């Protein structure tokens, strides 16, 4: 990757949710590029499992609970099937990345992480001291996350949204995104990739981890805090007994989180927090209602409100903000097969990462989620090779390059077993 591509990547991550419509957006363009990369690196197993998973995603349309067929439901399933296919095509790709590209990627992660920290800190100061809302993204740059017109920034829009409905809306930092929870998702992806990109530099890895934790604390996103804490524990559990500093910092982080968000934690434990109800309690009730009514292959998202309304379900209106539980609401028993294909040939840390990604905003097979998850997995599985060296790119494989060839001149190649030269064994 050259510097122009790195700059484009940085800009795309910061402006991922910006767009005129859902399709005509930065995420849509980014997804198109990632999809092309996935097709170029498609293997036969990935093609087979990707097609099987896509068919499973279409089963709710085939066994639709509504006779009147909806084009929107078909398009949604097509998008989700395509997003699933892209993740499957890239999730086990092993890229060989040379020294120069490695340095640029590390620089990009530093710029994105520090940039998000500065913006989040500025917004936090504004919320608690200035109350201006001027440092949030302009509402007009997003494809309408809330149903209001003629408001300026996201902070002022959410404030007006609450006033128009007679409810109190707590404004929290969200950096360049539409909500704090989404910021938590991006930070989780950065922390996941950072575990491999800076695996040879403990100081840099710990610094970025520290910044990531500060960001989610400033944003006061419970899903971000809990997900990041769980992943970091899973990724470092083998070294906990040898890393006293990590244990001390973890304890301090938990204490600060509890003190800062004590009210929300009490509401969550007491069952009165609306976010907790939407992400866990209501979705579990919805799964039970879906299966009780006999929709074993799930219900298309557009039809969930209709089915729940007919059942007289209380507190349930649509699919939830929990993508893991939505697997069973939207795909029924097929959701187990979709998850099995998604987790196939993945390590424990990668599976935990994907499960945690499902706790943000309800779906993962959409443009923005797919590109962030795919890039995080690509970097986590990448082989960062020293210039001019021939090292194992993956277990059981060796790469050989012509004499004098720089690794940076062939970035993005898949690590494959080398073919023995004639006359050798």
Automatic annotation (TrEMBL):
UniProt source species: Paraburkholderia translucens
Spans traversing the lipid bilayer: 6-34, 46-66, 78-97, 109-130, 174-194, 206-232, 244-262, 323-345, 351-380
Protein name stated in the entry: O-antigen ligase domain-containing protein
Domain of life: Bacteria
Keywords for the protein's UniProt record, in alphabetical order: Membrane, Transmembrane, Transmembrane helix
